[in-house]
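Hello forum,

I keep getting stuck at the same step: I have a sequence, I want structure tokens, and every attempt I make locally crashes halfway through. Rather than fight my setup again tonight, could one of you with a working pipeline run this one for me? It's a single chain of 125 residues.
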Amino acid sequence: MDKVIKVVLVDDETSFVEPMSLLFQEKGYSVSVFSNGKDALKKIKEDKPDIVFVDLIMPDMDGYTVLKKIREINQTLPVIMMSGYIEDTRVEKKINLQGVFATYYKGNDFSEALSLLKSALKLEK
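Reply #2:
Ran it on my machine without issues. Output:
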């Protein structure tokens, strides 16, 4: 039997992240959803997911900080940064410097997020 891919979604907007989670689950992925970076980082340390989607702008701990802490735990874990503000090239440069696989603009269809997941994990056939 194939290994189940473990996905962590970190976003404080439940109205956004819940449908995304459902889509991933329908495609056979194991999904853990967190509304803050602190809880997500605990899960990442304990459960070693295959990929993480992190919202850029969240209260308490923003996506940059979550990413930095992920890199302290795991240098190679694919991370996809999500935001409604990705069009800003300064944001794009800062994210890429910290080793993000890709950015996902929240205005896009969830199928693009699914495509990024497959690409990051080299699941495309």
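The mean pLDDT is 88. If your local run keeps crashing, start a new thread with the error log.
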